TrEMBL record, chains A, B:
Coiled-coil annotated spans: none
Alphabetical list of PANTHER family matching this protein: ACREF/ENVCD OPERON REPRESSOR-RELATED, ACREF_ENVCD OPERON REPRESSOR-RELATED
Keyword field contains Ribonucleoprotein: no
Domain (HTH tetR-type) ranges: 14-74
UniProt entry keywords in alphabetical sequence: DNA-binding
Domain of life: Bacteria
Protein name from the UniProt record: Tetr bacterial regulatory protein hth signature
Record-annotated DNA-binding residue ranges: 37-56
DNA sequence: GTCTATATCCAGATAGAC
DNA sequence: GTCTATCTGGATATAGAC
């Protein structure tokens, strides 16, 4: 094969994988790993199911790759947030607003949340997925640090910072699910409601 | 068959159904409907899988019955709460505390939440289940009423009451999931954190 | 009412042709 | 790289014996 064609093939391959991943993400999110058939993914991607095995050796492998992506993106986003030259309160506000906005604008963010939820809740997922889920604690840690900073500078309430981080993530998680359920009807609630958990005065 | 034996058989039958339901609830919650095999349920219930078909004609039927139970209990609880001779703030506080406490003490409450979540999120569930989920709006309505009352008496913040109800349910839902994931390690966060969303002063 | 054995079906995975 | 055809396994559901 000519080098020219080789490069072309690589591009096709990458494009296909992208295509498969994107379709699988939506299917996994809305049907669950177990209920999503390999033919569902291939059909949605307009390829035969035989071909799918050329790119991934099982649907579990696809699931794990997507889960990796999900965590990579979330952790990167949260770490970037932490480094911004903003006050703790502004960081929290930005996290909430960006996320709610993301839910409303593109479904992908919410789908990733649903994926992570499945991986967290369900026992019947690949061991590798279970491992990834454990890195969840990193997300908690970053938010906890921001909260502690906000308590130090006097803007945040003085409840246990770990507890506050737990409630923070649980709430956003719950909203991601609510968004997924509502679909097109989703309207992001006022971010100030959530911020009220952190600060004494809401304005 | 003697009337005596007939009654006895009825009791056995009821006991069996209870047994099956209780085991299925846990399995559905932790594995999902699709990933739960009919033999998982029969094995957990110490009966042959053939016998299970004597009581239910499919696992979907079991799922739907459990979902019915879940909503019946939640709606009953919320309506009872609304009727209590308490201030809106006290009602909200009680709802949060009772629920967090329930999560920590018996798993059943949290399992029901997980079941409802599945039914809400996943497309691949029985039509009958989809119907039941629509009654979810009733839960929102009751809480919205309580919130409006709290705004009228001046104790609650004046954000859109619907939004506040959405965030309220989403947060509790997120905490239910968090509880399920944590299992034995779950420690209920301070209820005042959540209450801070509603009131200006936290004490 | 309860079990074991069996039939049916469908999803996952492979093989081989183009 | 892509498809169609096929094999295999496992889960659902039924039948029949006790």
């Amino acid at each position: 094969m000519s080098p020219r064609n080789k490069i072309l093939n690589e591009e096709i391959k990458d494009a296909r994988r992208e295509q498969i991943l994107s379709n699988a993400l939506k299917l996994f999110a809305r049907r669950g790993l177990a209920a999503t058939k390999i033919t569902d993914i291939s059909t949605a991607s307009n390829i035969s199911q035989g071909l799918l095995y050329h790119y991934y050796k099982s649907k579990e492998e696809i699931f794990v790759e997507l889960l990796h992506d999900a965590y990579d993106k979330m952790i990167a986003a949260v770490l970037a947030l932490e480094r911004l030259p903003l006050s703790p309160l502004e960081k929290i506000r930005m996290a909430i607003e960006k996320l709610l906005q993301g839910f409303a604008e593109n479904k992908e963010t919410a789908y990733y949340y649903l994926l992570i939820n499945q991986a967290s809740i369900f026992e019947a997922i690949p061991d590798e997925a279970k491992e990834i889920v454990k890195s969840r604690s990193l997300l908690h840690e970053v938010i906890t640090r921001i909260i502690i900073a906000g308590q130090k500078d006097g803007t945040f309430k003085k409840y246990d910072a770990q507890d506050m981080a737990v409630v923070f993530w649980a709430s956003l998680n719950g909203l991601a699910i609510y968004n997924a359920v509502q679909g097109e009807n989703f309207r992001a609630p006022d971010a100030n409601i959530l911020i009220g958990m952190f600060t004494e005065k809401s304005k």
